[in-house]
Fold this protein.
Amino acid sequence: MDSSPQRSGETCSTGVQELFRKAGVMLDGHFLLTSGLHSPVYWEKFKLLQFPGYTGTLCSLIAAHFRQKHASVVVGPTMGGVILAFETARLLGTRAMFAEKDGDGRALRRGFSITSGEKVLVVDDVLTTGKSVTETLEAVRSLGGDVVGVGVLVDRSQSCLDFGTELFSCLRAPTVAYAPDQCPLCAAGVPLTKPGGA
């Protein structure tokens, strides 16, 4: 059996690219990412998530891709994942939940619960290292949830991340990121920017 990560949705749709362009999501500069890495490109997802129409269009791609998996819950990590989980769940006619930071990981709080064996779809906004997705998956699986897939708006990861389930991205856009001690932008003295939600 093929043990390589399952990845789909890698073809950059012109329509999806146009949504990101209209929303002014892709920024150029020298940015500190949530992961701690540095990058010359930052995807400011909240510039897109402020538009319900754009958000709904992208969540409909995720919902359509995973509809036959019959998830009964959609879970996203805070913060952007809250909006995405809600809209994707609305389209699928399921429950929506979010996983909050909890020490070194994430947890489902506020009365959220998943029954053992319940089918769960995990969604997130921008995938770089996969840390927030991995933490959310661990929170779901610790409750016995059966993860049927991961859907993201943008997969900017440079390597093929393996979450042990199918990964779907509305837009696949590999983007370079550097460890701080190997960052050529730092070496060139370009000022480092920490975006609002980073």
Notes: The chain has one domain: 7-24+55-177. The helical segments are 14-23, 46-49, 52-66, 80-92, 131-142, 184-187. The first helix runs from residue 14 to 23.
